Amino acid sequence: MLFFIGLGLHGAKGISLIGLEIAKKAEKVYLDVYTSPIAKEDVDSLKDLTGNEIVKVGRDFIEDGLEIINQARQKDVALIASGDPMVATTHLDLRLRAEKHGIKTHVIHNSSILCALPGETGLHAYNFGKTVTLMKSGLTPSSTVYEVIHENLIRGLHTIILLEYDFSAGFFLKPNEALESLLNMERDFRQGIFDDETFVIVASRIGSNSQLLHGGKIRSLIDKDYSEPPHAIIVPGKLHFTEMDALKTLLKISEDQITDNSSKVKILAVSMVKRYVLNTRKALSKARERSKVEKKNFDDLFENIECYISDAERFLNMGKFELAILSIGYAEGLLDSLRFIKELEIEW
């Protein structure tokens, strides 16, 4: 059998009683050290607590998984990981492969950074959107990171950005570098998310004795020293008044540093539809003038076009962006049809 045991956020002391019981009985115990750093004293403590040899393994070993799977065919194997073991997709993949090989699996869950950050900051857990990982190595394209944050902000949601940690290379992405990377993304994609005034929270070593939380505008945080990993950055969206109160009370962030990031984000559909509406109205006005000159009656068609334009504006105000785009597309299509069948010369 293959057990996945969560270590939580407090090192060796965070392992649950049931997790400890299973690790004591397991014939082979592995410790994942790639998803989050773990101190040598915690490794030694786990060895003392379980009475078992603790074998540290990295990403390649777990992604390959053959040795663990082959051993789990014959005996009980435990894989211990910081936080909750099923947050890492590599662990889920290993579990699925084991099950497909007929090996029973069992997960001992624990606290993770994803549930701890709302509790530590006072931001509401249900106001968080999709989480994303920022990697200097480029495995996650910057466009993906930016799009996730942009989509969350459009919906008024907060974003957790996990920063890369590579145990085998002894590398971690510093929050300073991450903030600079986010500003660089804005120069590339220009949707109004990041500038020096953007409000963010930098979380370092959550759950440890050296835990730190810094909140403020990027310009006030980008030059700070955040020391050792793990680190994460939160990009808050629309803030409830109780969240505002929590940030000021728990994190001691002054009110002038807290801003609504969602209020300034640009929605591509909005700018696109507004531009199309303006151009289509101009073209419709010219078409009406042209039809009078040529003494052709398209009043019914023009009325339909006007209705579609009005529908586009109405749907846009309702936040129904897909319908707004469809409506203005119909309006443009009707005008173009006159040009295509050579009934009326229309200038766009």
Describe this structure in words.
The protein has 348 residues and is α/β, with parallel strands linked by helices. It has three domains: 2-111, Cobalt-precorrin-4 Transmethylase, domain 1; 114-263, Tetrapyrrole methylase, C-terminal domain (Methyltransferase, Cobalt-precorrin-4 Transmethylase, Domain 2, 2-Layer Sandwich), CATH 3.30.950.10; 268-340, Substrate Binding Domain Of Dnak, Chain:A, Domain 2 (Up-down Bundle), CATH 1.20.1270. 47% of the residues lie in helices and 15% in strands. It is built from 13 helices and twelve strands. It has helices at residues 17-25, 40-50, 59-64, 66-74, 89-100, 113-121, 142-154, 175-189, 218-221, 241-250, 268-293, 299-317, 321-340; strands spanning 2-6, 28-32, 54-57, 77-81, 105-108, 132-134, 159-163, 165-166, 171-172, 199-204, 212-217, 231-235. The protein has a five-stranded parallel β-sheet, sandwiched between helices. Helix 11 packs antiparallel against helix 12 and helix 12 packs antiparallel against helix 13. The chain is elongated. The mean pLDDT is 92.
Attribute tags:
single chain; 348 residues; alpha/beta; Cobalt-precorrin-4 Transmethylase, domain 1; Methyltransferase, Cobalt-precorrin-4 Transmethylase, Domain 2; Substrate Binding Domain Of Dnak, Chain:A, Domain 2; 3 domains; 5-stranded parallel sheet; 5-stranded mixed sheet; 13 helices; 12 strands; 47% helix; 15% strand; elongated
